[in-house]
Amino acid sequence: MQAKEIIFRKRGGEENTRQELEFLLNGFLRGEVKEYQMSAWLMAVYFRGMTARELSTWTELMWRSGVTFPKEPSSSSHQKQYWIDKHSTGGVGDKTSLILVPLVKTVCHKYFPELSIRIPMVSGRGLGHTGGTLDKLESVNGFQTRIDLTGAMKLLESQGFVMMGQTKDIAPADELIYALRDVTSTIESIPLIVSSILSKKLSENLDGILFDVKTGLGAFMSDSESAKLLAIHLRQVALDHGVDAVALISQMDEPLGRKAGNFMEVEECADFLKGLPREADLQDLVWTSASWMLHLASGRKLSLNDAQDKCRLVTENGMAYDLFRHMFESQGGRFDEFERERSQFKKNYLEFDFKATQSGVVREMHARKLGVLLVEMGGGRVVKEAQIDHKVGFEFFKKVGDRVQPGDVMVRVIYRQVSELVKIETSLNEAVKIELGHQKSLKTPIVREILS
Length: 452
Ligand code: URA
Known about the structure:
- Helix content is 47%, strand content 16%.
- It has helices at 3-11, 18-30, 35-48, 52-63, 96-111, 133-138, 149-159, 172-184, 190-203, 224-240, 262-274, 280-297, 304-316, 321-329, 335-344, 367-379, 421-431, and strands spanning 81-88, 116-123, 161-165, 208-215, 244-251, 259-260, 350-355, 360-365, 393-396, 403-404, 409-415, 432-436, 447-451.
- Strand 4, helix 10 (224-240) and strand 5 (244-251) form a beta-alpha-beta unit.
């Protein structure tokens, strides 16, 4: 067998066999198939796609290039553990994972003790205009995201969840191939995205998974057809490997919730779980996601309405806040310091209030443009290794569909240097649009569709 022939067949739109895919991946991992050959094959997949069978096989091979979490034996013979995770395809202001873990665990503990849920959450960093869960977690000083499999298993055993980054042992083929895709313009391919995401998720040895596929101006898949196609394939490949799966398709035209920027998003999560007032979009997405996770974990027996009622109760009574704090402290985060910093950090930063100059209705808060600005302010990274400033960010006082009057503050910007102000103001003028005298509300539901 030759790599050249495998590339030739894919380039011509033929299906590669399991033997060919094995030869290609194993050869690549051993250094016998060269980076230029793998790149050529990736580009052929980009243009020609994969059949369902190829996608399932390729995902499995990528997953098996690394380790799989061993499941601990059930502590009680009556209680079957259910391993579940949630994966979002990324956006701006998306902090739902940080809320979901303590919320779902608290709801189970208080109301459904018969459900023994484990959440081995392996997350990523922000790249491009999107934020990443690991960066948000690390905005609490001391928090450790570099955890090996043994450490992860200990946390799963003691508290039922872990929030960690990908290690060298988890789907190493994906790490190498992702880096190649990044520099060969082959990121935006549905089969390559599906195999990349699922190779890592299958390593978590899950029973169930909830996908949150974003669509809109700030999403990877900006049009709804591609988002739906991605959701269908993610779900199908998960099911093929025996993992129960649900995919939400949610709106990412405007940033999610009230804040964007790592530290400020953790503040928003803390307030959410204390039961303080919340933005409707974030609340709807969190409660819908949490209910589906509980529903899946019950073997689809628990009603979604019942699950959602309990999520509401736990949120409104601030019952998950202690576990939120514990989530940081159990991995080295100094949460008291975080609470103290909240009232003080702005002294070291500059603040700019972007105000409405006319009356009307907010028509657009362009998530991608705002995400790009946040990166330029130092809050995100353009290359993987870059250092970020966790504290810069935005607070949104108006959302799409809200009425505004001249002088109303729409966005408060926390930034570092006076010289950045012209750029910030110009970018905000491009990202935020007001429709004059529009009477109709422009608000649309955050969850567009659920594939269950
Ligand atoms: N996230 C991943 O892990 N892989 C992709 O290819 C895209 C998003």
